[in-house]
Amino acid sequence: MAVVPTIVLPPRITPTLIERPALLALIPKVALSRMTVVSAPAGSGKTTAMLFWAERLRAEGRPLLWLAARAGIGNKASFLLALKAAGVAARLDWADLDADAGDAVWLEALSTVVEPKPVIVIDDAQLLDEATLAFIAQLSSSARDGLTMIVAARGSVGLPLARMRALGFLVEVGNADLSLTLAEATQLVTMSVGAPIDAQNLQDIVRDTQGWVSGVVIACDLYRRGAQGAGQMRLTGLRPEFAEYFHEEVLGQQPDDVRRFLVDTSILDELTPSACAAVTGNDDARAMLDRVFREGLFLNPIDQEHGRYAYHRLFRDMVLGRLMDRAPARAAMMHCRASDHFAATGDILKAVEHARLSGDQAFLAGQLDRLAEQLTYSGYLYRIDELGAELPWAVLAQHPYLLLALAWRRIRQLSFAAADRLIATARSIHEARNQSDDVSAHDNEQLDLMIRHRLVMLAAARDDMVEVEAEAEPLLAEMAESHAYLSCTLLAQLMSARRELYHFQDMLKLEAETRRALSRPGSDFASIALKASVAPTLMAQGKTQLAHRFLDEALTLARDIHGEGSGLAALPALPLAELLYDAGDLDGAAALVERHLPWCGNGDSRTRWRRATSSTPGCAPRAAICRARCRRSTTRIWSRSNVGWTGCAPSSWRKRSACSSRPARSRKPNGILPRAIRNWTANRSPRCIPRAATKASPSLGYGSRCSAIGSAARARLRIAGWNSSVAPGPSAQP
Known about the structure:
Layout: H1 21-25, H2 27-32, E1 35-39, H3 46-59, E2 64-68, H4 76-89, H5 103-110, E3 119-123, H6 130-143, E4 148-153, H7 162-167, E5 170-173, H8 175-178, H9 182-193, H10 199-209, H11 213-230, H12 240-249, H13 256-264, H14 273-280, H15 285-294, E6 299-301, E7 309-311, H16 313-326, H17 328-345, H18 348-357, H19 361-377, H20 381-388, H21 393-396, H22 400-412, H23 416-434, H24 441-461, H25 465-479, H26 484-500, H27 507-518, H28 524-540, H29 544-562, H30 567-582, H31 586-596, H32 598-601, H33 606-614, H34 623-640, H35 675-684, H36 689-695, H37 702-720
Helix pairs in contact: 5-6, 9-11, 14-17, 16-17, 17-18, 18-19, 19-20, 19-22, 20-22, 22-23, 22-24, 23-24, 24-25, 24-26, 25-26, 26-27, 26-28, 27-28, 28-29, 28-30, 29-30, 30-31, 30-37, 31-37, 34-37
């Protein structure tokens, strides 16, 4: 039997070979090892790495035997013939070896110690049969330090390696070792293209290829063709060149069950056994995941336990693109299955995202209705609004919890007419369900509580504190220990209403209820706004330490959820700044103001602030609370600067009608800011107080803006050393 010459002939090294420090550092380890195993997907640079090491070892005088399984090794006999031919070409005394001889003869001949010891390189070992792999394993054990073997395969090699690994004689090289770094990818692109490449194109190539060597080479070829007249085009992503490569080298070589698994699970960003089982409908997803990973099918582990995986970006784009083009109904079904799975496991954001990607509006509305409470309680009310805006009214009008979530969002946006319509539609659904037997009494009761809760929120937004006080307390009693989130929102509104109406006789009772609400499971997110709302009342009662503790806890939790300097963190941070200022901690107050005031005074951050507060209870702009806070802030500024109101009776602010929640009106003060304040803020800081007052986000509320701005004014003026004896300037309206 003749040996195909290319089996024992090393391939030509690419002319754009770059220096790779990681591969260079492995040369001493490879030279001293008994076996080096290189496992990575197709096109990862396995052959190039082995050529690099082989040339370095041959330069040291060591005989090199190269065996390419892809070139024609089909069984053990052909492997032995190729091995003999490679040894003879390397001038080893193997001419008398017979391919038909027993393994003992071959092992005796190959295990003979020769100096310098030979290097056997086996490429594409995944194509070898079991008998050949067993012979290679026995040869490595028999020869011991008489041979250095380098074996490359896509995925696992199929050799027993545990003992060799434990003895320290094994070197393992994986996809992470072969992937190009940013500097290496840049160098390879520059050398391949022959000229500097556009920065955006370079960024796209490096991001999408994720260090995959063949992907970089294909993208460079696309760039050269584009430079020669093909025009502007995206170099990576779902391109025919990449799709053809993956189809020929990966999908086309797989059996039907593996191919079906790859296609169905391509909709998942992250693959876990449970998610794959839910999507594919098969219980053997764990075994299939392990199989796909072992075979090197562009599946990368995310954790060390190999419990979570992710496909290579370009490979997933290709498989998913074909699924969407050729079987859109199947893709929609896979997304629906994934959405149900993530909803059941509590990953609500992934659940709604897969529902959106399914393209089924009815299914999306159903999932939003199912997850509306969880999304709202987790701070994602804005996401419900974004997705709900894509749905027609005929679909929305069938899902009451989705309608009530959208109503809460409209209340925060002061869209009262829209909120009324949404609540009325939800109520009509509730009335229809009461007359049918399709829904349990418990579910109808829960829906009724939700509707009444939204009505209280709407009354609070409309500044109807009398109705808030009348409806919130009985609703709280009915909720009892359930609905921790809603209880916190009702407590915040009830506390604010009684503070506005000067009904302080029940404050102690509310404080006790507040402590109980904050201790219930599920109240973490809602506690931020509740504590921020309760703190002003505690400060007014002289309970400064408790207010300080509440605001500190709320600020810490807000930072944990949305990060330092976020809009959610500003909610407790600005009242805390006022408290610190009153306590004489000017540095602490100024630091909080400088950190968090831009969220409500910066036009670029309005969207972020609205998003952070739209799902937070107690943030509805209520004129009554706002006026009280504004009065407190501005009165302190003027009293400390020895400048009084002109033609204004502050006592009239405290006069209220016995049957109305509206405060008595007074004339506007003549001269809202003295000249020193106006000049200092206008000339010293782009985030000045008048500018912040006019640009603050509407979602924060007028009173909250005034409170924050008042704190900022006092802290900044004190820090700047403003002299209170400066005469006031001409009158200026706010």
